[in-house]
Amino acid sequence: MLLNHLSKYLESVERAIRNLEGAYVERYEEEILTVNRVNLRIRIRFQTGHMLELNEAPNTPHFQELDTYPHHKHLSERVIAVERPTIIDVIEEATLLAGETSV
Fold this sequence. Notes:
Elements: H1 4-18, E1 23-34, E2 37-46, E3 51-56, E4 72-74, E5 79-81, H2 87-101
Antiparallel strand pairs: 1-2, 2-3, 4-5
Helix pairs in contact: 1-2
């Protein structure tokens, strides 16, 4: 059985996705690794034509040169160092960016 905090985390991610407007989910996969670790794969399409693809996986072994390793963000032309965001933070930022470019 999942620990309570993992279950609450997954519920909060699902709730954030359900509350999206102007977007739909193409892919949502949960892979339970242990009682406190999950791998999430999510792809969201926005009506503006933008796509957000998330893969929250433990121990991503690339971009070790970044100060925030293993945490990073892929932009269209580069990868930058970032503190670890939550998936909800990423979804909210993508929603804002998708809305800004549709004006």
